[in-house]
Amino acid sequence: MGIVSLKKRFNRIYSLVIRFIRGEHSGDALRNVSISILPSLAIYLLGVPASTAIGIGVGSLLTTLTDPPGNRKDKLSSALVCIPTFFVASFLTAYLFPVHWPLVILLGLAGFTFTLYGLFGPRYAAIGNMTLILMSFVIGLAPKHPLAVGLQITTGAAIYYLFSLLQAYIRPYRSLKYAMANGFQGLSQFLLIRAQSYDPSIPLDITYSRVGKIHGQISEQQEQIRSLLFREKKIIGHQWPKSNYWLSQVYGLIDLHELIIALDHDYDAIRKNLADTGSLPVIRRAIKLLALEIDSFSQPRIRFRYAQQLYYNTIKLNELLIELKNIQQQQTGPAGPILRSIITNMESILEVLRRIQVAFYQNQEIQDKIDTAEYQQFINRPLGSLDEIKNKLHLKNPLFRFALRMALLFGVGALIGILFLDFKYTYWILLTIAIVARPAFSMTKTRNIERIVGTFSGILIGISCLAFFESLPLLLSLSAIGLFGFFLFNRSNYMVSVIFITLGVVIALNLFEGNINLILGSRMAFTLVGAFLTIAGYFLIPVRQSSSLVHLAKEVASYNQHYFQIINQRLSDNLQSSFDIRLARKKAQTAMALFSDSINQMKKEPEHKWIDWSHIHHFQALSYRINSHLVGLSISISKKNPEALHNDIYVRIDELKPLLTDLDQIAEHISGSKK
Hints:
Elements: H1 2-21, H2 24-45, H3 50-63, H4 72-96, H5 100-115, H6 122-140, H7 146-170, H8 174-196, H9 204-229, H10 233-236, H11 243-261, H12 267-274, H13 280-296, H14 300-305, H15 307-329, H16 335-361, H17 386-390, H18 398-419, H19 427-436, H20 441-468, H21 472-489, H22 494-513, H23 516-540, H24 545-573, H25 579-602, H26 614-637, H27 646-673
Helix pairs in contact: 2-3, 2-7, 2-21, 3-6, 3-7, 4-5, 4-6, 4-7, 5-6, 5-18, 6-19, 8-9, 8-11, 8-13, 9-11, 9-25, 11-16, 13-15, 13-16, 15-16, 18-19, 18-23, 19-23, 20-22, 20-23, 21-22, 24-25, 24-26, 24-27, 25-26, 26-27
């Protein structure tokens, strides 16, 4: 039994490693390393001075981190913003480098201005953050020719985006493909956490906490999928042969999310009522098989390879459903309706999975679809006017407060650099601030720990490599591996990425500059100074989650109420379009995911011990319970013959009304307690 268990664990780890290697970030890492090194190396071999080649390489290297997954339009927009921003920032930094006090003022203004790029979305926030890192690097280069430095950085940025856009036009739906795979994998993990809710040995507060954490991740994944798909006119306009294939996948993924949310009920009551029925272990096994089936869609090649195993899993799942139905028929109390609801939900999930399966083999027309003109309402729109931007520039806006903090931190970091001119690597203070500082205390603290541990570990590995290896080609290869590892883990595990980049930096600086003791001492010392400043900055200009929590609580109550009204309207008007109900559900569940994420952030703030969590936790549990009932209602009225469920639907509607009233009242209580 031990050997079998060990083999299963090994296969699971092997599967995770292979999936990670095949992920989008792996290909991006190889592309980024190649573009960062090869063009600069080619330019150097053609006889161009080393300083020019290094400047172009730095430009390409930093530009790679401004380009998260996206479609052709996203990448073109990034290029049009990033390239001129990099030129202006690098030129001004190099120009003012010899003049200390104006440089301090420039860096303070840059900390404020480029942080506010986040107003226009995550893609532009990445450009703003990397611009601050670029300015830190330019200081480290000790430039003597400002225009030359600006042109070198700009050339490197242009080279990177040339290849990035070329890749996007050759493989336009690459990011969408990977986003869909991540979406199915995420829902599978979400469902496995749901299974824990039916296990009495696991405390409910732990399961609710886990659900809240992963719900935010799932919401972000679905938002990315909607953003990538619904802005592709060829797909939503059915102008591409595989339009129905992609739309069927997305519809299925969204419907699965809806059905998995519908498994959320009053788990305390479920555990008590089902405790003596013997159904809880059966439910857990069935949910795990459903999760395995969903996960298989994230890896189409493996799904086809193991089609026979999946077929047997489906048979086993049907047997479990029959067993649950037999248990349900024997119940006379409240356990009967609870089991009926769970069985119906699982059958609906299987129905959606069959629909997705058909899309794998046939380009079938979608029956219940949204009109082309309505897709845009499912996408978060960026700020579109000066008035909208002005409305965000106030102290109650978390991003505005964070921009003020970054201005202060960059100004202080630059001032320390002036006071310690004899030290060569003071710019690492600014680098640490730009990389580590985040609006929330928990994220800043986590990044600090990861950066310090990663830096220390990378230094030890770097010293070991320099001590044991003397071959120049081998050391250069290790430095390149460090760069590749940084790109490979930058999105998934920041601490590991820091270990790799520190390894690469230590080896590269020692080869080109020597004096390893100064390099190591300075990197560790100035990293610690930067880390300390980021923590101090939070307490000077805090961005607390409590203010956003009040707003989000009101949104959760409001959007669930709106969802309820839309369901009522559709029931009375017998409307055929699913647009309104899908949009209402999306808004309600997005608000709930943001609320859960805000709670997780608040629990890590220094002030969390003085907060009364009872009402907040009750509100969160009640909102999930209400939303699950709303989803169940929307599923019921979408059936082909809802008249048969007519009485049951109206009974459930009457039960929901007082719950919605309670949700509004608790939201007001949270609002009053935070004033």
